[in-house]
Amino acid sequence: MVIHVFIFFLVVICLKRNKPKYMQIVDAAVIAIAENGYHQAQVSKIAKQAGVADGTIYLYFKNKEDILISVFQEKMGIFVENLQAIIKSGETASDKLCKMIENHFRVLSSDRHLATVTQLELRQSNKEIRLKINSILKEYLILLDQILIEGMLNGEFNQTMDVRIARQMVFGTIDEITTTWVMNENRYDLLEQAPKVKQLLLNALKA
Amino acid sequence: MVIHVFIFFLVVICLKRNKPKYMQIVDAAVIAIAENGYHQAQVSKIAKQAGVADGTIYLYFKNKEDILISVFQEKMGIFVENLQAIIKSGETASDKLCKMIENHFRVLSSDRHLATVTQLELRQSNKEIRLKINSILKEYLILLDQILIEGMLNGEFNQTMDVRIARQMVFGTIDEITTTWVMNENRYDLLEQAPKVKQLLLNALKA
Amino acid sequence: MVIHVFIFFLVVICLKRNKPKYMQIVDAAVIAIAENGYHQAQVSKIAKQAGVADGTIYLYFKNKEDILISVFQEKMGIFVENLQAIIKSGETASDKLCKMIENHFRVLSSDRHLATVTQLELRQSNKEIRLKINSILKEYLILLDQILIEGMLNGEFNQTMDVRIARQMVFGTIDEITTTWVMNENRYDLLEQAPKVKQLLLNALKA
Amino acid sequence: MVIHVFIFFLVVICLKRNKPKYMQIVDAAVIAIAENGYHQAQVSKIAKQAGVADGTIYLYFKNKEDILISVFQEKMGIFVENLQAIIKSGETASDKLCKMIENHFRVLSSDRHLATVTQLELRQSNKEIRLKINSILKEYLILLDQILIEGMLNGEFNQTMDVRIARQMVFGTIDEITTTWVMNENRYDLLEQAPKVKQLLLNALKA
DNA sequence: CATGAATGAGGATTCATTCAT
DNA sequence: CATGAATGAATCCTCATTCAT
């Protein structure tokens, strides 16, 4: 049953992604939100940015909320896919964690619009949307848990630590650093922070 | 000159705090926002909760935005004052950090309305308000920096670490843990998490 | 250049006039203001009178002020167009002046709503709107000046008189008579006053 | 009966005028309205300008409308008293008319605040107030009628003219010239316009 | 007489969504 | 599929007036 629902969603997303206007609108939303701010990114602005009529939006999305969730879903996919590749690459848990941090910083460094949207603008959405965003984020956090557990099992990380707390520390740290960087309007290089972050976090986790 | 300005502000805040209706409205705002959500906490709801007329709000606050900033300012004051007392108490930097974490968790544990407002609702405000909130938060972060620097100077903490990154790790971790706790609707005890958090963070920072 | 700007405005106005809802709302505004008074003619009342939704108003007008200015602009156009036809009709300046007075009284006599709005209600608007209204009125006053100057040049009118003062006398007289008529709730026939007014004014101006 | 009512009002006004705060508030209202505009001259601003508390206003005036009407009443008194003196001075009707025009221009020239208030700001009041103002103005217009009738009876003025129309011409002309002068921010001397105005109006009226 | 803190009614405007074409 | 004109609900703030002191 659960599997059927999962496959159903996969099919839905694939169908959507194949329709050119779907991604066109998602990308337009990222730009419109980044340039105008969350509350000033009206549906009409997103439509204009996407080069379609206002009404067309509603052929691809249930409502405005659905656009925002789709933005997060589609863009989060990049993180998750990269992270899955990292996990499969068969190195140590420490290496995987380091690569994850680098990946996180690299993806957001390379797309300032996306960074502004995920770190600042999308957080202005109401509680309901944020709960849905969090459930999308969960996929990413589960992969992070896998790395942590792997490290604990093979003795790289402290075997007595609480995985949930550790995960919240790693994600909270990465997120806070990224948000501060966006708020400071990218005045310094985010990727250069990675070594210092790795050192601190590995220190915290190490056996 | 700087001192005069400082005293001026102290006087302003004291004058405000002494007017009973000022704090009455601030407290009502916390409850109204926590119960209705940021965007559904209309001025009239706050007024009704405070037991005053709508117009009375505007005798004490410039506009709705000013209420929100005052909420953060007044409530953040509790954290800052506690933290200042902790710093003066003359223990080790590690102890101070531990007490800071406990204080943070304790204050938010004891006022679930406040926790909901600071962790979820107030973040929905627009960029302008968030910038003002951040400048209030800075006071708190400066005190955290003091603890970290003290620990580095007396050899408790790693003397080669980047203070800004370390501060972002500590605050990001505490904030993420608190936010998750609020999102999970306080289903577990936040204060019980403190020992595990301390251990991880001290591990990360230690010399 | 000037001509291009002029044509541009003509095109803008023609485009507007051709949209049926534009004039529908302008006409509704005249009725709503005449019946409810300036300050009681809420946008929602104008919309209801026009048979459109409140929001529709804002597809055709920038704001409420813009409705009021457009009312004056569109209705003043009738005076100006008639007056231009009168001037072209090639009679003596005295005749033209007489016809202008008749035209002024006739137009306002035939539309009591409009008379109330221009003579009483629109004057309650703030200084900013009144300045814009005055600049629209200027067009009318320039045509009046043309008549006066023509009469002075061809010896019909006193060649030593001050044109500005003469124009203010003519317009002030017409305006005062019309306003008094409106304030007396049209209890007598405005057009019947024309011969007496002509006689007095021509007497004042004659060589 | 009518006389009793009249005496009653005289007594009321005399009582009021003797109370120092009454005129203090009236004068403050003129300044507050001239400096802030009609709609921005809140009761609290008038009170502050008069150096009294908001509530004190209501010990001397029924409501805000009453202040405005009193302003007009008290200030109009200057015109009427001057005009009564002119009429008694026993010269020809033409002379009286000339002196009236000069008086009108002189009083408003010498008090720019008052000129702004009577010519621009007070006209923004609602229809109801304007009707009351007009009934106060009537006293002034009756005196003007007396001059015109005197001139018609003694052969100075055209004996076939309509007194009401003639009065509206004289007042409309004076009023329009004064209003234009105020709108042009007193950039020229109002009193210098008097000779040209007299000439035109006497020409219009002459037998 | 005088004060001034408190009251609370009232309205322009925005923008997500629909539906006839 | 695509359009875009039309909809209408929903809210912050001002300010004349009151009344307890």
Question: Would you write up a description of this structure?
Answer:
The structure is a homotetramer of 207-residue chains. The first copy, chain A, is mostly helical and 207 residues long. Chain A has ten helices and no strands. Chain A has helices at 2-18, 20-36, 43-50, 54-60, 64-88, 93-110, 112-121, 127-153, 163-183, 194-205. In chain A, helix 2 packs across helix 5 and helix 7 (112-121) crosses helix 9. The radius of gyration of chain A is 18 Å and the shape is elongated. Chain A starts with a helix and ends with a helix. The interface between A and B is large, with 37 and 38 residues. Chain B binds a DNA duplex (21 and 21 nucleotides) through helix 3 and helix 4.
- As a percent range, the share of helical residues of chain A equals over 70%
Largest sheet of chain A: none
The ordered string of helix (H) and strand (E) elements of chain A is: HHHHHHHHHH
Strand content bin of chain A: under 5%
Task: Specify which chain pair forms the largest interface.
Answer: A-B, 37 and 38 residues
Q: What is the rounded Rg of chain A?
A: 18 Å
- N→C terminal distance of chain A: 41 Å
Integer average pLDDT of chain A: 89
- How is the quaternary structure best described? homotetramer
Give a count of the beta strands of chain A, DSSP E runs of length 2 or more. Answer: 0
Task: Return the structural class of chain A.
Answer: mainly alpha
Helix count of chain A equals 10
Shape assignment of chain A: elongated
Please mark out the parts of chain A with pLDDT under 50 across 5 or more consecutive residues, or reply none.
none
